[in-house]
Specification:
The protein has 1 helix and no strands. The protein is mainly alpha-helical. The protein is rod-shaped and about 90 Å long.
């Protein structure tokens, strides 16, 4: 095989691997964001439950 053809094949394989890694990374990212939002929401609810209730003005 020609050297240039081999180099082109290796380059294409590397680009394919990078694209696949990027696709997999984007696929898993929203799951983490959802976990973070749920976590901070639970922290906020916990802080509200732990704080004393405001006095009712009469």
């Amino acid at each position: 095989m020609y050297t240039q053809t081999q180099l082109a094949r290796h380059h294409m394989a590397e680009l394919h691997t990078q694209a696949e890694n990027h696709r997999l990374a984007k696929k898993t990212k929203p799951e983490r964001e959802l976990r973070e939002r749920i976590g901070w929401t639970l922290v906020e609810v916990g802080l509200r439950l732990a704080s004393p209730a405001p006095a009712i003005a009469r």
